[in-house]
Specification:
By secondary structure, the protein is of the alpha+beta class. It contains two helices and 15 strands. The protein folds into two domains: about 80 residues, Immunoglobulins (Immunoglobulin-like); about 100 residues, Immunoglobulin-like (Sandwich), CATH 2.60.40.
């Protein structure tokens, strides 16, 4: 009887104590409540009582690197990503995060072939968010337009959505077969965070 009683309490302990431990494990993003695709998203993972060498953190789609400040989650696709925390091979915690991709467009077009008719006489930049709906909205801050003119690279920087007159004149000088780039594209979120998004590269047809 004593043996059965001891076994009952042992099983009871295994039933309830791990759940309490899961609640103590914390996965916290440092800058937002969601993840940016193909970007480093700083985070901290706290497991009370566990040695750092025994903790393993995984991401369902993408990669993770770590430094002295914590972890960087780098998801590979938009949608959702699951972060899992293991201690000595045992799963202690899972957390799901939305993953978005923030990109820029020129007159509604991404990188690739384009004609002057699609961008002139006016050209306008816009910010596009791909993926699940998030509370943060984004606006364009600044960018550079670059092209080769007479063998020399010309770069003109501006802010605001519409390309400035100098940038428009630069594009007017280009011919079919020429390439131009829009780079150093900075966007600002309504949460106050600023980030640089992927360059746009166009070939005139």
């Amino acid at each position: 009887m004593k043996t059965l009683s001891g076994l009952f309490f042992l099983l009871l302990g295994f039933t309830f104590f791990p759940a309490q431990g899961q609640e103590n494990v914390k996965i916290q993003l440092s800058k937002s409540d969601f993840l940016y695709r193909n970007s480093e998203n700083p985070a901290t993972v706290t497991v009370p009582g566990a040695a750092q060498k025994d903790i393993k953190v995984t991401l369902s789609d993408g990669s993770i690197n770590s430094d002295s400040k914590g972890y960087n989650f780098i998801p590979g696709k938009v949608g959702t990503a699951v972060v899992s925390v293991f201690v000595k091979g045992k799963l202690l915690k899972k957390a799901e995060f939305k993953v978005i991709n923030v990109a820029a467009k020129l007159n509604g077009h991404k990188s690739g072939d384009i004609t002057k008719a699609l961008i002139l006489p006016t050209a306008k930049m816009a910010v596009e968010v791909e993926g699940p709906e998030v509370a943060v909205k984004f606006k364009l801050v600044s960018y550079e337009v670059s092209a080769m003119i007479d063998g020399n690279e010309v770069t003109i920087k501006s802010s605001g959505e519409a390309l400035n007159p100098d940038q428009i004149n630069l594009l007017k000088k280009l011919q079919a077969g020429d390439r131009f780039m829009i780079s150093d594209i900075k966007v600002m979120g309504s949460d106050g965070t600023q980030r640089t998004v992927a360059d746009l590269v166009f070939d005139l047809k």
